[in-house]
Specification:
Blueprint: H1 10-21, E1 25-30, H2 37-45, H3 53-57, H4 59-62, H5 65-68, E2 74-81, E3 110-113, H6 122-141, E4 147-151, H7 158-165, E5 169-170, E6 176-177, E7 185-192, H8 211-215, E8 221-223, E9 226-227, H9 233-239, E10 255-257, H10 261-264, E11 288-290, H11 291-296, H12 299-306, H13 315-330, H14 336-342, H15 348-364
Parallel strand pairs: 3-10
Antiparallel strand pairs: 1-2, 2-7, 3-11, 4-7, 5-6, 8-9
Helix pairs in contact: 1-6, 13-15, 14-15
The protein binds iron/sulfur cluster (SF4) (2 copies).
One iron/sulfur cluster binds at residues 171-173, 206, 209-212, 265-268.
C-alpha cells in the first residue's frame, strides 16, 4: 500500500491499513501524561497489584508515553476482537462432572480456560501485524519519524491510553468496554513522533449496574473501578506463582486459567460483534482441558501442547497447581489416584495443592 503523506489523510490511511491487517478498531490520542495517574498510584499504594512488583517499579514510566519514546506526539490504540460465535458463554455454566466435556476429554474432569486464551498467543498473532503498521506510520511521518508498537506488554498503561483515545470506557470491573465489541478484545498501541489530531474519549456508561461486582466469585472487585488483584482468579491462576490462599481455592470452582465471570455478566456484551482475525487462530472452542491429562504433563508435553498459547504464561507448575484446585473442588473420589501421585511432585507448590485437593475430597466423601 502506498503511504498517503497529506496531513489530513494520515488518520484515514492508518485506519485503512489497520482494517486491512485485521484490526477491528483504531483511535488516536496525544502522548501526554495519563490523567489516571492519581488513581493508579493510589491503587499501587494500597498493594492491590499483589506480586506484580514490576507495576510499582515502573509506575512513573507507565504513566508517560514520552518516557517510552522521547519526542512522541501521538498514541494510536487498536482493538482486535476475540468475540467468536463458536465460543459459548461457559464461565457461568456448572460443569457436569463425570461426563467428557472437552474436545478430547477422557477422564471426565475438566477445567475451564478463559476465552482469550483459547486462541494462539495473541502477542504473536497481533504483533506481526502491528510491526507492519509501525512501519506504515513511520513512512507516513517521513524522514526522522520514530514509532514503536506494543501488544498488551508495553511499558505504558495501555488500557488508559486506549480509553483516552476513545476505544471504549472503563467499566466497574476495570476492563475496557466498547459499544460494538463489548469487552472481548485485545489492545495494542503505537506511540509515534507523528502529530495527529486526537479522538474524543468516551464517558462511562455503567449507570447503576453492578452485575460484575455482584457476580465475582471471590469479591475481587472491592469497589466500583477498584480491582484487588490479590483476590482475582485471573491473577491467581496466571500471574501468581505461589500458594493460592486456602480460603479462595473453593471459590475458584473449575477455573484453571483466567476467569471471565465479570465479563460474561456485563450487559454490553449482549450485542458484541465477532472479529475475524482471532477466529482463524482458535485452538479450542469450549475452552475445557482434561484435568487428569494436565496432571500427567511433563515439560516437553506442556511446551508441545501450550507453547504457542497464552497458557504458557502460567508455566507447567502453575497449570498443575490450578488443576489440583479444580479437582479438589469436584469432591469426586475418582480424582484421588492422580492427585495422590502428585503429592510426591518435586515442586513444593504443586505438591501442597495436591495434598489440599486430596484432603478436600476426603472431607466431602
Ligand atoms: S476475573 Fe473473575 S475473579 Fe477477577 S474480578 Fe473478574 S470475576 Fe472476579
Ligand atoms: S457489568 Fe455493569 S457495572 Fe460491570 S462493567 Fe458491565 S455495565 Fe459496568
Amino acid at each position: 500500500m502506498a503511504p498517503d503523506t497529506t496531513t489530513t489523510n494520515i488518520k484515514a490511511a492508518v485506519r485503512r491499513c489497520a482494517a486491512e491487517l485485521g484490526f477491528d478498531l483504531c483511535a488516536f490520542t496525544t502522548a501526554d501524561v495519563l490523567e489516571s495517574a492519581p488513581h493508579f498510584l493510589r491503587w499501587l499504594a494500597e498493594g492491590n497489584q499483589g506480586e506484580m512488583a514490576y507495576l510499582a517499579r515502573s509506575a512513573q514510566r507507565r504513566l508517560d508515553p514520552r518516557s517510552v519514546l522521547p519526542g512522541a506526539r501521538t498514541a494510536i490504540a487498536f482493538a482486535v476482537s476475540y468475540a467468536d460465535e463458536l465460543l459459548p458463554n461457559t464461565a457461568l455454566a456448572v460443569p457436569e462432572q463425570g461426563r467428557p466435556a472437552s474436545e478430547s476429554c477422557e477422564s471426565g474432569f475438566t477445567g475451564l480456560v478463559a476465552r482469550y486464551a483459547r486462541f494462539e498467543d495473541y502477542h504473536a498473532v497481533i504483533g506481526k501485524r502491528l510491526e507492519v503498521l509501525v512501519d506504515f506510520v513511520s513512512k507516513l511521518g517521513g524522514a526522522g519519524t520514530e514509532s514503536i508498537g506494543h501488544v498488551d506488554s508495553g511499558p505504558v498503561l495501555e488500557r488508559d491510553l486506549a480509553r483516552r483515545a476513545g476505544l471504549g470506557f472503563v467499566g466497574k470491573h476495570t476492563n475496557l468496554i466498547n459499544r460494538m465489541f463489548g469487552n472481548w478484545f485485545f489492545i495494542a498501541e503505537i506511540i509515534t513522533t507523528v502529530e495527529m489530531e486526537p479522538d474524543r474519549p468516551e464517558s462511562n456508561r455503567c449507570g447503576t449496574c453492578r452485575r460484575c461486582i455482584d457476580a465475582c466469585p471471590t469479591g475481587a472487585i472491592a469497589a466500583p473501578f477498584r480491582l484487588d488483584a490479590r483476590r482475582c482468579i485471573s491473577y491467581l491462576t496466571i500471574e501468581f506463582r505461589g500458594s493460592i490462599p486456602a480460603e479462595l481455592r473453593p471459590l475458584m470452582g473449575d477455573k484453571i486459567f483466567g476467569c471471565d465471570v465479570c465479563l460474561e455478566v456485563c450487559p454490553w456484551n449482549r450485542l458484541a460483534k465477532s472479529g475475524g482475525l482471532m477466529s482463524r487462530h482458535r485452538w479450542s472452542t469450549n475452552g475445557r482441558l482434561d484435568l487428569i491429562e494436565v496432571l500427567r504433563l511433563d515439560e516437553s508435553g506442556f511446551r508441545a501442547r501450550f507453547g504457542n498459547t497464552p497458557i504458557a504464561r502460567a508455566k507447567l507448575a502453575g497449570l498443575k497447581r490450578n488443576a489440583c484446585v479444580a479437582l479438589g473442588n469436584t469432591g469426586d473420589a475418582r480424582a484421588l489416584p492422580a492427585l495422590e501421585k502428585l503429592i510426591m511432585d518435586s515442586n513444593a507448590v504443586v505438591s501442597e495443592h495436591a495434598r489440599w485437593a486430596v484432603e478436600r475430597i476426603r472431607q466431602r466423601m
